[in-house]
Automatic annotation (TrEMBL):
SUPFAM superfamilies in the cross-refs: Periplasmic binding protein-like II (SSF53850), Winged helix' DNA-binding domain (SSF46785)
Keyword Transcription: yes
Protein name as annotated: LysR family transcriptional regulator
Species for this entry: Methylopila musalis
Chain ranges of the HTH lysR-type domain: 3-60
UniProt KW DNA-binding keyword: yes
Entry superkingdom: Bacteria
Entry-linked InterPro entries: HTH-type_LysR_regulators, LysR_HTH_N, LysR_subst-bd, WH-like_DNA-bd_sf, WH_DNA-bd_sf
Protein family membership: Belongs to the LysR transcriptional regulatory family.
UniProt keywords, alphabetically: DNA-binding, Transcription, Transcription regulation
């Protein structure tokens, strides 16, 4: 039975996600390629590794054993790369960082810039994920550093403070809510919304609406906070954006900023890693830089 590193990463991702589709995406494979690899793994081992159902997949007893050993192997490979990296001379390095929407768009560019300027031989692979997915990916070794909301399940990870921010509502200057200092999110559920296309933050906002038994009326989904604020400022709908973005864009877009009173809108974020000792030299340097900024 021969499993390569891609097989092991895929299997751990599928087990953690409880879904072949999501596990394939995390491992950077198409669904067809991932499904074929999983079939080949089961055929090679002569044992069923996953129970497949309507709501996803769960590991069999053999699958649990494989996942346990796969995690150990992947951890050892990370440690090996870290140790060998100390001896590398003149070679380019890469650090994979996962971040939630707010960190990716509003905070990380400014914090990464000086570090990257001082480390010209290091590239950063930066991807957006939801905080829960970030915690899972860091724990499984799919990335070295994560920046996530502190409400995510982070048991077993090393956490350091990163930033604090609040989500606010943005509306046009003539909107009935424009004169209000604060509102509850529930007060907005009947409003038409301007959302973010495929953003982790927008999925979080939709989840909060679902928890209240509502589905948001989405008029259009845009790619960035600038677009959301411009639409809201023109009276096309209501947006929910970080307060840092709203302050930055208030003058240029004409928005009125309304504080949201709900506890979930106050967000503390953290930088996380699985094991500081196992980080590559480049990843450790970046982690120390981001945590120093957080302090």
């Amino acid at each position: 039975m021969r499993f390569d590193v891609t097989d092991l990463r895929l299997f751990v991702a599928v087990v953690d996600a409880g879904s072949i589709t999501h596990g394939a995406a995390e491992a950077g494979l198409s669904l067809a390629a991932a499904s074929e690899r999983l079939r080949e793994m089961e055929a090679a081992g002569g044992v069923r590794l996953l129970d497949r159902g309507r709501r996803g997949v769960t590991p069999t007893e053999a699958g649990e054993a494989l996942a346990h050993h796969a995690r150990a192997i992947l951890r050892q490979m990370t440690q090996m790369r870290g140790e060998l990296g100390r001896y590398a001379k003149g070679q380019r390095a890469s650090v994979r960082v996962l971040a939630n929407t707010v960190a990716l768009t509003e905070i990380l560019p400014g914090r990464l810039a000086p570090w990257m300027a001082a480390h010209a031989h290091v590239d950063v692979e930066l991807k957006e994920r939801q905080s829960v997915d970030i915690a899972r990916s860091i724990a499984s070794g799919f990335a070295e550093i994560g920046v996530l909301s502190c409400v995510a399940g982070t048991e077993g990870l090393v956490l350091r403070p990163f930033a604090r921010d609040r989500l606010v509502a943005v509306v046009g200057p003539h909107h009935p809510l424009a004169e209000r200092a604060a509102v509850r999110f529930a007060d907005l559920l009947d409003e038409p919304f301007i959302g973010l296309a495929e953003g982790a933050l927008w999925r979080h906002v939709e989840a909060q609406a679902a928890a209240l038994g509502a589905k948001l009326k989405l008029r259009v989904a845009l790619r960035d906070f600038d677009g959301v604020c411009r639409m809201a400022g023109a009276g096309a709908g209501v947006g929910v954006v970080p307060e840092t973005a709203a302050r930055r864009l208030r003058r240029s877009t004409g928005i009125a900023v309304v504080r949201l009173e709900d506890a979930w809108t106050m967000r503390r974020s953290a930088v996380c890693v699985r094991d500081e000792a196992a980080l590559t030299p480049a990843a450790r340097s970046l982690f120390e830089h981001l945590t120093a900024q957080g302090r």
